[in-house]
Structure formats: C-alpha cells, structure tokens
Specification:
Layout lengths: L58 H19 L4 H8 L3 H13 L1
Length: 106
Amino acid sequence: MEFETAIIEPDEALTTPETTDDNTDPLPEYCHYQDEGCEFAASCLNCPFLRCVHDEPGGKQHFVKELRDREVLRRYTAGKTIKELAMMFGISQRTVHRALKRARNE
C-alpha cells in the first residue's frame, strides 16, 4: 500500500506573534469563540450558576432532579398527598418519599 505525501503550508493564523511558543495553538484571547450558552442561560458569561451545570457530577440531570424535589416538597407542604404527587410528576410513590427526604435535607 502506497501513500502520497504533500507539503502543507502553515496556517497564517498560527504564525502570528499572538501564538504560543510552539506556534501550534492561538491564545484564547485571539480565538473567535461564540458564546451560545445552554438551556439554562442565554450565554455562559451571563450564567447564574457559580459553576457550569455541565461540569458538575451528574450535570443537567442532577440539577433538574433538585428542582423537581423542591417542587415536590412545596406541593406536599401545600396539602397534596403522596399519591397525587406521584401521578402529577410521573414518578413512583417511593420516589416521592425520596424526593421529600432529599429536599428536606437541603
């Protein structure tokens, strides 16, 4: 099997004085980065969280579960029964008990 080789000219952006010592990666301040945010904030720079939700263990799922648990506790204290909450959130009655316990501990 034979491979063809070609000489590749270095990219002009990588040979500017604003690059690192090894001239392979432009410094972050010279990169064009589009801040698109996520489903929780319109942009990363305006995010209400101290640390990105996607960097946390469990990520988005953990955050959504915390919100659900707080809402379950709020509705439970407003007078809803365990069975009503289970049907309302589409979870088992045992999960409602766990959610109440977690929300109370926070």
